[in-house]
Amino acid sequence: MRTSTEHPLSIRFFTSPMDRFVRALLVACCLSVWIPEHRVRAQDALAGESLAGESLDNDSVYFQVRFDEAAMHRVWIEASYPTKGAKELRLMMPVWTPGSYMVREYARQVESIAAFDKESPLKCVKSDKNHWVVSCENTQRVTLRYTVYGREMGVRTNWIEEQFAFLTGAATFLIPQDGLDRRCVLECVPRAGWGQIATSLSVLSTSPWVRTAKNFDELVDSPVVLGSIDIQAQEISGVPHYLATVPSEGWDTKKAMADAAKIIKIEQEFWGEVPYPQYWFLNLLTEAGGGLEHDNSTVLMASRWTQKQRSKYVDWLGLVSHEFFHTWNVRRLRPKGLMKYDYNQEQYIQELWIAEGLTSYYDDLFVVRSGLSTPKEYLERVSKSIQTVQNSPGRQVQNLLDSSFDSWIKFYRPDENAANSRVSYYVKGAILGMLLDVQIRLGSEDKHTLDDCMRLLWQRHRATGYSNEDFSNIVRELGGKPLGDWLDEQLGSTQELDYQPFLDAYGLMWKASESSKEVPQESGASSGVPKMATAGQIGLEMSNLAGRTQVDKVLRGFAGSRAGVQVGDEIVALGGYRVTAEQWTDRVGMLEIGQQTTLLVARRGKMLELGLDLASVPQVDSAPSWNLVRVEKPTPEQEKRWGAWLGLPSLAVPGVEASGTK
Ligand SMILES: [Zn+2]
After folding, report:
1. How far is the CA of 129 from the centre of ligand 1 (A)?
2. Distance in Å, CA 405 to ligand 1 centroid
3. What does each C-alpha distance from 377 to 248, 303, 324, 507, 566 come to in angstroms?
4. Within-domain flag for 482
């Protein structure tokens, strides 16, 4: 209905006598909308009274959020800022949010912004993309009213609808540019039927809907979920932990909380310290994916069907493990360049391979160490990560330091050429962490592990932040100087990773997966079995676009690239016969390596026949198409180290402590 969408601030544009009459009516209506009972109560508190014994000083910033237009994905916000006698108030909205290193321009979703001294309009001018200047001479407090459109389902954006709302601080709140240290009070006015609020923000009064943050950093760092939420609580190490699921139909939050508790315990033990007063897992089953870490909470997004499928649920447990590990690594233990957030611009750092890569190494590792997944499942995940890196031509183009530095413009903005030009600091960082871990074990005769490095980094650099050099020096200390030098070389170069020490240390080998039709070249040559090509060796990714097979990615150096296939081409036929995207893998598998054939493609409407040469498939390592398995007869030493690595109690031996359990 239009009346509900008409913003009350449109009164600023009424000028005729009739308009002024209408305006008077609207003001009356607006007051009932914008200054309801609870706002008066909170403003009383701001004037010096107290809410539940908490007194608020006049420096605090007050936000009230309303969801009257949730069906239109809009949240109404009224903010109240102290001016402290200033003539102008410069308000800022962040352009990014910590943990997600891309400028997202949150201000693009701000609508209908206007400022008032009580109910008298004040001049409010936008000065750049994310700043507004309010003229406020002789005004004690500026009231700002605006709406924010939120319909981007992601862990670092807003989603507002009638069933529930998810608010990200950076995407919602404007703050005085020089007032980031001000205490913030947030009052949420829920819709009828919304019974719960889930957030790590402290309760201010007897009402759960009024919360407080000690400063803007905490407000930004404390996402809020409102709706009908299934909340399960469990005290672990004397601290309450909550799992809040919405929408919760078909999800067993109790079981998920019990499983998460095992991960929580083992990670608390790993770090040896519980640095938070409470912790919230905000579990949004929205068919989206991903997670975002915060000091005392995390946002998780997954499918509502996650618990129905074992591998998906293990994925979810890995996500829980990953985000919770960040409670220490990157939230409280930060690279120097992130010690103070600058919400106005990018902050360039080269340590994301530690912050994200090593967190990725430990995420699935803690799932297996806590007994929630099997070593076999773990090896399958490690194999996939190795395949991802080894199949990306970009591993030979970009090193890990550059990958981290350019996250703002590259990692978060992948295009069709990404696999050719980039390497992921998550995936390669995790693999490097795994290889480094084993090297530390070998170099210290199993006295030390990467776990010890992480704990030393925490103890020494929590207060000041760390650099890559600080980390390498700890590696030198525990694993020997050559290992620290090796690490520096790995980080700053694109040289191929050597998996052999890793395989030898734990008694592992590569084996073609049973589902794969690929035949390793070496064994094919020796056994006389024809060597068949694989889709992976052609290096094309394609999709079915309204019945047409469109090429989405062309991997540099692979057979498809050498044949001259380009992104956007339509694949019509292989070897003279029509082929669809769904048939591609099977049909390529019928071609012998060494064979010459043709590809018929349509490029911007013109038919082209390209020669596809399978004489020499790309020199990919054996790893990409194979899976890691244990050797048949591991040595006792391999067995001991394997048990220590994965925290397998039956295999752990005296003198070789199971990592992560101390
Ligand atoms: Zn992460």
Report:
1. 28
2. 16
3. 27, 21, 21, 16, 37
4. yes
- Ligand 1 centroid to Cα of residue 298, in Å, is 10
501 CA → ligand 1 middle, Å: 27
The answer on 167 and 84 residing in a single domain is: yes
CA of 578 to the centre of ligand 1 (A): 43
**249 and 211 co-located in one domain:** no
- Choose one of 179, 208, 227: the last residue of a domain: 227
- What pLDDT does 461 receive? 98
AA identity, residue 120: S
Task: Find tokens 């520096």 and name the residue.
Answer: 488
pTM above 0.70, yes or no: yes
Strand extents, DSSP E, 378-418:
none
Classify burial at 270, counting beta carbons within 10 Å of its beta carbon; exposed 0-12, middle 13-18, buried 19 or more: buried
Helix (H, G, I), strand (E, B) or coil at 462: coil
**192-215 mean pLDDT:** 95
Are residues 44 and 127 located together in one domain of the fold? yes
Whether residue 620 lies inside any domain: the answer is: no
Question: Based on the domain organization, do 370 and 247 belong to the same domain?
Answer: no
Give the relative orientation of helices 450-461 and 468-479 as an angle to the nearest 10 degrees: 130
Q: Do 603 and 569 meet the contact criterion of CB atoms below 8 Å apart?
A: yes
* Cβ atoms of residues 367 and 318 within 8 Å: yes
Helices marked H in 296-374 — which ranges? 310-325, 352, 359-369
Separation of CA 360 and ligand 1 centre (Å): 7
Q: How far is the CA of 251 from the centre of ligand 1 (A)?
A: 24
Q: What is the CATH number of the domain that holds 545?
A: 2.30.42.10
Q: How far is the CA of 227 from the centre of ligand 1 (A)?
A: 26
Q: How far is the CA of 233 from the centre of ligand 1 (A)?
A: 24
CA of 324 to the centre of ligand 1 (A): 9
**CA 529 / ligand 1 centre spacing (Å):** 44
Domain that holds residue 78: 39-227
Q: For residues 44 and 6, state if they share a domain.
A: no
Q: pLDDT tier at 205 (50, 70, 90 boundaries)?
A: confident
Please tell me whether residues 464 and 551 are part of one structural domain: no
Q: What separation in Å is there between the alpha carbon of 322 and the centre of ligand 1?
A: 6
Give dist(CA 461, CA 466) in Å, integer.
Answer: 6
pLDDT at residue number 7: 34
Over residues 385-395, the mean pLDDT reads 93
CA of 301 to the centre of ligand 1 (A): 13
How far apart CA 433 and CA 450 sit, in angstroms, is: 8
Alpha helices in 212-283, H assignment, sequence order: 216-220, 253-271
CATH number of the CATH domain containing 393: 1.10.390.10
CA 76 to ligand 1 centroid distance, Å: 31
Residues 134 and 157 in one domain: yes
**CATH assignment at residue 65:** 2.60.40.3650
244 and 148 assigned to the same domain: no
| β-pairing verdict for 184-189 and 548-554 | unpaired
Separation of CA 494 and ligand 1 centre (Å): 23
What is the 155 CA–ligand 1 centroid distance (Å)?
Answer: 12
Distance in Å, CA 271 to ligand 1 centroid: 17
* Average pLDDT of the chain, as a whole number: 88
Tens-digit pLDDT profile for residues 22-74: 333 333 333 333 333 344 344 444 443 344 344 557 899 999 999 999 999 99
Q: Nearest 5°: CA angle at 349, between 347 and 355? A: 110
Instruction: With respect to residue 320, please indicate whether it lies within any of the assigned structural domains.
Output: no
Task: Report whether 316 contacts 306 (CB < 8 A).
Answer: yes
Report how far ligand 1's centroid is from the alpha carbon of 13 (Å).
Answer: 47
Question: Does residue 345 form part of some domain?
Answer: no
Ligand 1 centre distance from Cα of residue 429 (Å): 12
Indicate if the pLDDT at residue 581 is higher than 60: yes
